[in-house]
Amino acid sequence: MTSSRRRDELELLAARRRRARRKARVSRRRRVGLIAAILLGGIAIGLASVSFGGAVAFANGCKLSSLQPISIGANTFIYAADGSLLGSIPAEKNRTPVSWKQISPWMPKATVAIEDKRFWSHGGIDPEGIARAVVEDVRAGRVVQGGSTITQQLVRNLYISREKTVKRKLKEACLAVKLSQKHTKHWILTEYMNAVYYGAQAYGVEAAAQTFFSKHASRLTLSEAALLAGLPQAPSDYDPFRDPSRAIARRNEVLRAMLATGSITRDQYYAAASDAELGLEPGRLYKDIRQPYFFSYVRDELARVYGPARVRSGGLRVYTTIDPRFQVAARKAIKDTLYYASDPAAAVVSINPANGAIRAMEAVYPGRNKNQFNLIAQAHRQAGSTFKVFVLATAIEQGMNPETTTYLSAPLHYQPDPTCDSSDPNCAWNPETYDHTYSGSTSVFSATLRSDNTVFARLTLDVGPENVARMARKLGVRTDLSVDGGYVPSMGLGSIAVTPLDMASAYSTIAAGGVYSRPMAIRKVVLPNGKVDEEAGWGKPDRKRVLADGIAAEITKILEQNVLGGTGVGAQLYNRPAAGKTGTTENHADAWFCGFVPQLETTVWVGYPRAEIPMESVHGISVAGGTFPATIWQRFMSAALKNAKVLSWAVPKQYPVYKTWDGQWQYSGAGYDSSSSSSSGGTYYAPATSEETTTSAKPSPSPAPAKPTPTPPTRTVTPPPTEPPPPTEPPPPGIP
Questions:
Q1: Which of 187, 167, 609, 75 is CA-nearest to residue 378?
Q2: pLDDT tens profile 155-203
Q3: What is the helix (H) or strand (E) element at residue 381, kind and residue range?
Q4: Does residue 715 contact residue 677 with C-beta atoms inside 8 Å?
Q5: Bridge-partner residues for 526, per DSSP?
Q6: Which residue in 443, 454, 460 sits closest to 402, CA to CA?
Q7: Are strands 317-320 and 522-526 parallel, antiparallel or unpaired?
C-alpha cells in the first residue's frame, strides 16, 4: 500500500512538472510571438509609408508564378590573362540531383538540426528564430545570428536576387510561406539539399558526397552526414581539405545539435564525435582545373559579388590577371629549390604594384600533388622579421631618421606588471637576437640589415604597437592583428599570423611609392548576353595613397641595402635593383622573403602547412628567410623579368621630415650589465628564441612607462648578417 501511494505521489509530481514545462513553453512562445508581432508590425508601418504603386508592385512580386529558377546548364568559364582556359565552374548539369530515397536518412536529420530545428513545425518562416536572431544581433550590436529558415534559403538561393533590402526580405518571407503551403516538407528539404553549396566545387548533396568521400549520398554515415551538413554556413572556413581540425569541430557541433533535437542517441553521439579521422577520399572534381589555388580565389571573389547560384549557373566568362608564364616560373623556382618528397611546402604570390593585379599565385607541397589547401589566401602564419618593415615605416612617419637614430642592441626585459609571477610565461617578454650577438649602440638602419630583434622590440614599444598595427592595415594587411582586443609589442617582431597575400599586398604598396592598390584577380566579366559587366568594377584599380612617397623611398633604400649586404643577399638579381626583407619564426617553423623591383612585388613563404613544424634540417641546413625563400624569390624573379625593362627607383616628390628622436625605450630595458657588454651579450641568459620573433610571452597591450638609462653602452661589435645566403649544395639529378 505504501509503495502504491509513493508511486501515485511520484506520478502526480511528474504530471505537475509536465504542466509547468508546458506553461513555460506557452509563455515563452507568447513572448516570442509578441516580439515577432512588434517586429512585423514595424515592418508593416514601414511598408505603409511607401507609395501605392510600390505596394502593388510588391504584391504582384509575391506570387508563386513569379518563381523562375536560374536556368540550368550555363557554365562559368575562367581564363588567364593570355586568354587560355583555367577551368569551368560546375553548373547545374554538373551536379546529380537525387530523390529523397537516394539520400542517407542521416543527411536530412543533420541538416534540419543545424540549419532550422523547427523546420517540420513552422510554415516557411520561424517567428521564434527571427526574434531570437534579432535579440542576439541587438545585444551584440552586429549581425551574429540569422533567422532564415531552410525554405527561405531555398527561395533566396534559387529564385530571387540577394540584394540586402527590406523589400527583398519581405518578398523572400512571403514566397517562403506560399512555397511551404504548396509543397510538402520533404520536397522543400530535398530541393534544398540538391541545390546548396557544400564547398570544394560541390553543389548538392550527391556532388558533395562524391567530392569529399567518393561515394553516393545514399551511403553517407552519421559522421559523414554531420560533416557535410555543417559546411553550407561557411564552406571555405570549414573545408576539411583545407582545415581538418576546424571541420571536425564543426561536425561535432552538428552532432550536438542532432543530440539536442533527439535525432540521435547519446551513444550514437559519442561514437561519432570521438572519431578523430574524417575518412576523406577526395573525388576527381578538380582534374580539369588549372592553377587550383588561384582558381579557388577567383571563384570566391565572384561568389562575393554575384552569389554562388549565379556563379555556378550564370554563364559568365571571367578574364583574370594571372600570367601563365609567371605561374610556370613560380612552380619551377619552387621545385628546383625544394625537390625532395620530405621537403616543406612553398607558396609564391606576385603583384603588380601599379594596379594591384595578381600576376602569380602558386604553391607546391612536395609529395602531396592533390593538396587543395590555399597556402596563399587562407593560410595564416607568423611573419617573422618581414613585419619589422611596418615598425620602420611607423617610426619614419613619426619623424625618426633611421640613419642617425641609434638604439641599444642588447637583450631586452619587458615586464609591464612588476607584481606578476615570473614563472608565468606571459609575465615578461625577453627578446634576443637570432645569433645571441649584440652591437650595443647601433643605428636603426644597421639594425634593419642585421634584423636585430632587440632594437626593433624597443622601437615597437616607442612608436606604439597600435600604431604599427594601423600602419600594417593601411599598407595592405587585412588580417586582424589584435590579441584580446589590444595590440601586443611582440607584433613588431612578427608574432601575429598573417597570409602571404597580406604581406605581398603591403610590400606592393611600398614598391608603389606608398600608394595602396586592392589586390585584383579579375580583369573583366562578360555576361551571357555578351556585354561586359561594368557595374561590378572589375579591372578598375582601387588605389589610394596611404604613405608619403618620401617615406616609401627611404624604406626602399634600406631594403635595397639589405639585399646588397644584409640578410637578403641570397635574393640579388643580376644588373637590376631589388629590395626585400627576410623573415624566420621561432624554431624555424616559417621562413619568408618579401621583396620587389619597381614593377613587380613577390612574396615567398616556406613551411609545413599542417602544423608549425621546425625546419632545422632541410637539405642539411636550418631554413631561414635568407636561404630557400630568398633562393626561390631570386629564381622566380629572374625568369619573370627576363624580358622586362630594367627600371630605376622613382624619385620622391617630398622627402621625410625628421625631428629629434627621444624614445623612452631607446636605451632601456637591458637584461644585463652594460659594463660587461660583449658580442656574446654579457652575463644575461634567457630562453633561446629566433632572430625573427619571440613567442615566449604575450605582453600587455598597453606598455608601461620605462625609466631611461642615461648612459648607453659605447662598445660596438658588428657581427655578420644573422641570415646568411644558403650554403652551396649539390643539385639533384637532372637539375643543372
A1: 609
A2: 876 665 555 556 667 777 888 888 888 889 999 999 899 888 898 878 8
A3: strand 381-382
A4: yes
A5: 317, 532
A6: 443
A7: antiparallel
Q: According to the 3-state scheme, what is the secondary structure of 601-649?
A: EEEEEEECCCCCCCCCCECCECCCCCCHHHHHHHHHHHHHCCCCCCCCC
Q: C-alpha grid cell for residue 125?
A: 518562416
Q: What is the Cα–Cα distance from 217 to 194, expressed in whole angstroms?
A: 11
- Written as one letter, the residue type at 69 is P
Average pLDDT score, the chain: 81
Please report, as a single letter, which amino acid is at residue 98.
V
Please report how the helices 244-260 and 222-229 are oriented relative to each other, as an axis angle in degrees rounded to 10.
100
The H-assigned helical ranges of 380-464 are: 388-397, 444-450, 453-463
Element (H, E) at 325: helix 324-337
Grid cell listed for 448: 634593419
**DSSP helix/strand/coil, 594:** strand
CB 606 within 8 A of CB 709: no
Residue 183 DSSP SS3: coil
Cα dihedral 317, 320, 325, 329 in deg (nearest 10): -130
User: Cα(370)–Cα(367) distance, rounded to whole angstroms?
Assistant: 9
For residues 384-395, give the mean pLDDT: 98
C-alpha cell at 407: 638604439
Give the per-residue pLDDT at 168: 66
Site of grid cell 625577453 = 430
Residue 259 CA: distances (Å) to CA of 113, 219, 275: 9, 21, 16
What residues contact residue 462 under an 8 Å CB cut-off, 6+ apart? 395, 663, 664, 665, 666
Do 367 and 609 contact (CB within 8 A), yes or no? no
Q: How is 439-451 classified by DSSP, letter by letter?
A: -EEEEHHHHHHHT
485-513 pLDDT, tens digit per residue, is: 999 999 999 999 999 999 999 999 999 99
Identify the sign of the CA torsion 301, 305, 311, 314. negative
* Max CA distance (Å), the chain: 105
Q: Cell 586568354 appears where?
A: 83
Eight-state DSSP code of residue 364: E
**Cβ-contact 686, 428 below 8 angstroms:** no
Cell digits for 657? 621630415
Cell of 301: 571573389
β partners of residue 579: 596
Write out the H or E segment, with its range, that includes residue 510: helix 500-511
